[in-house]
Amino acid sequence: MRVYLPATTTVLQRLLDQGRLDGPLTVFAVTPELRRHYELSDDEELEYAALLAAARASLRLIDIDPSAARRRVVLAADVADDAVTPIEDDGADAGAARVHADVAVSAVASAHVDLAEAEEDVRRAVGVVLEADLGSEDAQFAVDQVEGHELAWYATQEIGLVLELL
What we know:
Layout: E1 2-7, H1 9-18, E2 20-21, E3 25-28, H2 32-37, H3 43-63, E4 73-78, E5 84-86, E6 96-99, E7 103-104, E8 108-113, H4 119-133, H5 137-147, E9 152-155, H6 159-165
Antiparallel strand pairs: 1-4, 2-7, 3-6, 4-8, 5-6, 8-9
Helix pairs in contact: 3-4, 4-5
């Protein structure tokens, strides 16, 4: 199953250093809840919705990691279906799930990272993402601004180079 793992540049470095990310991990995937939430969407649109949800979760991770670059990071990885359990909590984002296994670098299909031009918008959004989650319209506007930036796609073997350039 393809999952989208919210991350930070710190997490990317850990992935390279250790060769894996230790589970359990919170991810986003095309779960039954996501299908219900976007019932008229095709599989490609559902995958994109899961990636966007992971990108928003990346903002929350950056908020608690002052050493991370102010760029959203999402890892796309392929894991065994039986390692993924949807989170069925009324407060959880549609598509939220848990992977109950380590995710090896060999399971990572790609990394998605903001470009430099997104940094200022990410910085603003990181400071207010929790307020947006609680319903603040002004905060939601800042989060929407960063979501207007497309994440750049990188092959797994390019992750080290991406980190060097930050």
